[in-house]
Specification:
The complex is a heterodimer of chains A (292) and B (489).
Chain A (H helix, E strand, L loop, with lengths): L1 H5 L13 H9 L7 E3 L5 H7 L3 H8 L34 H15 L5 E6 L6 H12 L4 E7 L2 E2 L2 E2 L12 H5 L3 E5 L3 H16 L5 E6 L18 H6 L1 H4 L1 H6 L4 H23 L16
Parallel strand pairs in A: 1-2, 2-3, 3-7, 6-7
Antiparallel strand pairs in A: 4-5
Helix pairs in contact in A: 2-3, 2-8, 4-12, 5-6
Chain B lengths: L2 E3 H15 L3 E5 L15 H5 L4 E3 L4 H13 L3 E6 L9 H14 L9 E6 L14 H4 L6 E3 L4 H13 L4 E6 L2 H4 L1 E3 L13 E4 L4 E5 L2 H14 L5 E5 L2 E3 L3 H11 L2 E8 L4 H12 L7 E5 L9 H7 L3 H13 L12 E3 L5 E7 L5 H14 L5 E4 L2 E4 L5 E4 L12 E5 L18 E5 L6 E8 L6 H24 L11
Parallel strand pairs in B: 2-3, 2-4, 4-5, 5-7, 6-7, 10-11, 10-13, 13-14, 19-20, 20-21
Antiparallel strand pairs in B: 1-8, 6-12, 9-11, 15-16, 16-22, 17-18, 21-22
The chains are: A alpha/beta (292), B alpha/beta (489).
Chain lengths: 292, 489
């Protein structure tokens, strides 16, 4: 996707390199089709785990009207699927935080035992939206899990210019809820933290904040040039220890990992080729769905 | 027939809808035990419990945000923003999210939420408890915006809003809450969103209004009715989407538009409504707007607030200006003008049949009642306006005026000249002369004693005369009467 966007064949790409274990970890800990997710825009891994088809991901990437996420109306990474229980995502970050809280509130009122994951970046976490949302979730002990992708960058602005603490986990105490600090490049650790939080939520004991430390290995989006504000060399040096894919590979047999990689390459290439060939929108449909 | 206040109607709607549909829940500041600062939710906390009537933190962003989430999840949340002045913290969720969710997902996700808020000034609330906010939100496609003015509509539109599959912003004018009472039908009477109502029928001009300004407009219309000006008042009820059909049908009838809103004038709803009328080409004269001047806030001082809020007097003035505004050339009617001759006079062209005495006498009587200064006696001690209209007829040399009466009509019939100015007789303040009728039209001149009557009043007199005469003519025509001797125009 990165290369296709840079080649001008799609409008927009959002890399998730370095963030895969956060999304995959929380999605694996949820009951697909039962629990609810308000994902971060870097949560492609979560979407794939939850069951989004690669071809649908690519329809979203190419902004085709047949994209089930955004119907050619929003750029890539604005995920959403009622079928998969993924709330429709928006541009201004992280407005979906309170939507996720409302969704969790619905779970409580409907008494269906489902939980909601609400994921956002550490840049987004500086907005009043997040404070207000965590406060409400804590007051009503709502079944939700706040997951912060803490990569230390808000597009081009470094951590120290966004918040004065090293991490965000201490904020949980301010709301009277548990906070868990996790190595967000370790998929097993992510899974365990979210599973624990989900158990707590299902038991009626309210929300949890998970501070997932991770590295954003690539620029913010395909429109960003991170060489203007950070040292790419230093970043690449972190690959050995902080790349979630490399760490996950170490958990499985090398031959199996190679086979999975090859399979994924083939699936992604097929999905991209197929999706790019799908028709663009019909201008006469642009006003459709403004209202019921 | 039972009568309720607006706030009682709202409370009844909320209670009935919560009883009918268990997905309906309320969230807002102070709406629980206190029952809301305006008491819209009074009694509902005790009746439905803290799970369905939820006191929220003082944080309008998250009130709107969780309401969006609850609605996406399938509940029917009704949020209250205590004062519309605080709603802007919710705007991102209303305009950026709720309004777009259906559209941006091609209908996969929907957001059937309601957000109620109290807006409007008039009771010394100052800049942060008085604002009108409709223009911001009526500019957000995907949202619906309703603004009920009566108790029946407050209930019926709120029921419709809660059942609507899309997000609805309900703007409640806080001054209507307790001052406006009216009949509210028992039970489940829904008022459809998107339909305006004719609050008062009339033929001379259309007022488009809503909220408290609807009631001020109705009061102005009543005053004008006594002066012979017949104003139609349209209660918009829904501001987005506008009921173009009802609006344009009214304007097609009256061809004159006055928009009244409490919101500030520039980029207010009046701009859209006037443009709607202009694009449909239904106006004979330029429209007028009665709105708050572009002040950054509504001041709390009694005199200052009264100075900026429109009211029945300013609406009346605007309407008089509107109905006396002459039709511009090229609109199919002649342009009249004030002529500055010694006894000030005005001339207007009026559609008249050849036989017209009865019709003209009636029109003079109506105009004299509308502008009593033209039916008066001047003396240096003062001007005496007569209660009765007694027309002294001057029908030519064979039947000259007797010199009595309160106003004189000069009409020499088909043999008369097209245009001449009559004398004002001593003891009177006005005289009217009908010129010869040519092709169904005649010049009508009104001369006035300038010591008692100014040119503008003479103009108003003639405008009222023309309106009445031509309406009577149209009535006879449409009734198929025998006065139909006119060339079509």
């Amino acid at each position: 996707m990165w290369r296709l966007a840079r080649a001008g064949r799609a409008h927009f790409a959002v890399p998730c390199s370095g963030h895969e274990a956060v999304g995959a970890g929380y999605a694996l800990a949820l009951q697909a089709g039962v629990d609810w997710v308000s994902p971060h825009y870097r949560d492609l891994a979560a979407l794939l785990v939850l069951g989004m088809e690669p071809r649908d991901v690519m329809l979203c990437f190419f902004s085709r009207p047949s994209d089930p996420n955004a119907r050619g109306r929003q750029p890539y990474a604005h995920f959403g699927s009622r079928r998969l229980h993924v709330l429709s995502q928006q541009g201004p970050q992280p407005n979906h935080c309170s939507h996720g809280v409302g969704c969790a509130w619905g779970s409580k009122l409907l008494g269906d035992g489902s939980v909601s994951v609400i994921a956002f970046g550490d840049g987004g976490a500086q907005k009043g939206e997040v404070h207000e949302s965590m406060n409400v979730a804590a007051i009503h002990r709502l079944p939700c899990i706040f997951v912060v992708h803490r990569n230390g960058w808000t597009q081009s602005v470094k951590r120290a210019d966004q918040y004065a603490t090293e991490t965000l986990v201490a904020r949980a105490a301010g709301y009277g809820i548990p906070g868990i600090a996790v190595d967000g490049s370790d998929v097993e650790a992510m899974y365990a933290a979210v599973a624990e939080a989900a158990d707590r939520a299902r038991a009626g004991d309210g929300p949890t904040l998970i501070d997932a430390d991770c590295v954003r290995f690539l620029p913010n989006t395909s429109n960003d040039d991170d060489s203007r504000y950070r040292d790419r060399g230093e970043l690449e040096a972190l690959r050995a220890t902080r790349d979630p894919l490399l760490r996950a590979r170490a958990l499985v047999d090398g031959a199996l990992a190679g086979a999975i990689d090859a399979d994924n390459e083939r699936v992604a290439a097929d999905a991209a080729e197929w999706a790019e060939a799908q028709p663009l929108g019909d201008p006469s449909t642009v006003l459709e769905h403004a209202y019921a | 027939m039972r009568e309720l206040s607006v706030i009682e109607a709202i409370r009844e709607a909320l209670g009935e809808e919560m009883a009918r549909d268990e997905r309906v829940m309320l969230l807002g500041e102070d709406i629980g035990k206190l029952g809301g600062v305006f008491r819209a939710t009074e009694g509902l906390f005790d009746r439905f419990g803290p799970e369905r009537v939820v006191d929220m933190p003082m944080a309008e962003t998250v009130i709107a945000g969780v309401t969006v989430g609850l609605a996406m999840r399938g509940l029917r949340p009704v949020a209250e923003i205590q004062f519309a002045d605080f709603i802007h913290a919710s705007m991102d969720h209303l305009v950026g999210e709720a309004a777009k969710i259906r559209w941006r997902t091609g209908g996969d996700w929907t957001c059937p939420m309601v957000l109620r808020t109290a807006y409007g000034g008039g009771f010394r609330g100052g800049p942060y408890h008085s604002q009108s906010v409709e223009a911001y939100y009526a500019h957000a496609p995907g949202l619906k915006v309703v603004a009920p003015s009566t108790p029946a509509d407050a209930k019926g539109l709120l029921l419709a809003a809660i059942r609507d599959p899309d997000p609805v912003l309900v703007l409640e004018h806080k001054r209507t809450y307790r001052t406006i009472r009216g009949h509210v039908p028992e039970g489940d009477v829904v008022v459809p969103i998107g339909r305006a109502a004719i609050a008062r029928e009339g033929r001379d001009a259309t007022v488009l209004a809503y909220g408290m300004m609807l009631h001020e407009s109705l009061a102005a219309a009543e005053t004008l009715a006594a002066e012979g000006i017949d104003v139609e008042v349209v209660d918009l009820r829904t501001l987005l989407p506008l009921d173009r059909e009802t609006i344009l049908a009214s304007l097609a009838k009256t061809r004159r538009l006055c928009v009244v809103h409490e919101d500030t004038v520039t980029m207010g709803l009046g701009a859209e409504l006037c443009t709607l009328a202009a694009e449909a080409d239904v106006l004979d004269v330029p429209p007028v707007r009665v709105a708050m001047p572009d002040v950054p806030g509504i001041p709390v001082d009694d005199n200052l607030e009264d100075a900026v809020l429109p009211n029945r007097a300013t609406i009346r003035e605007a309407l008089v200006r509107l109905v006396t505004r002459e039709v511009a050339r090229g609109r199919g009617e002649a342009r009249a003008y004030d002529a500055a001759i010694p006894q000030a006079s005005s001339i207007v062209q009026v559609a008249l049949p050849v036989e017209h005495t009865r019709l003209v006498l009636d029109a003079i009587a109506t105009a004299a009642r509308a502008v009593p200064k033209c039916n008066a006696t001047f003396s240096w001690a003062g001007i005496v306006e007569h209660e009765d209209v007694v027309v002294d007829l001057d029908l030519g040399p064979s039947s000259p005026a007797a010199g009595r009466g309160t106003i004189t009509l000069v009409d020499y019939g088909a043999d008369g000249s097209d245009l001449a100015i009559p004398f004002v007789r001593p003891g009177q303040t006005a005289a009217v002369r009908i010129g010869a009728v040519r092709d169904g039209r005649a010049y009508v001149a009104c001369a006035v004693d300038h010591r008692a009557v100014d040119g503008a009043d003479a103009g108003r007199f003639l405008a009222a005369f023309k309106r009445t005469a031509e309406r009577s003519l149209a009535d006879v025509d449409s009734a198929g009467g025998d006065v139909r001797q006119l060339a079509p125009y």
